[in-house]
Amino acid sequence: MQVNFGLFMLVSIATVSCGQHVEKIIRNDFDGPHADGSYRWALQTEGGIFHEQLGSLQSTAAEEPSLLVEGQYQYTAPDGQVINVLYKADKNGFHAEGDHIPTPPPIPPAIQRALDYLATLPPPTDYQ
Question: What is the residue range of the signal peptide feature (predicted)?
């Protein structure tokens, strides 16, 4: 859980410090943390930086509780492009989505056929 909290703090600090000058905060809402571990906050500056986040503890009977964080942030890049990132951080890591984030090229058809074929084979049983 400390890794997730550290990730949360790193993203928060990086988002707030994206601007090159100090901007007036026009929205600063905080709610929590509550007894169940949940919280919600939102921050907005006069220069158009916006960041909001929700957090809660997720638990199952078999595992130790872990922090689930979901949020988004937005700012204007130096080239004028509005950057908007939706993200989720959980026990499996940090997952971000945004139009500006590069995506991998498609898998070539021959490689995809080979992967599909390998997926049909039974798993090996001789682990020597």
Answer: 1-19
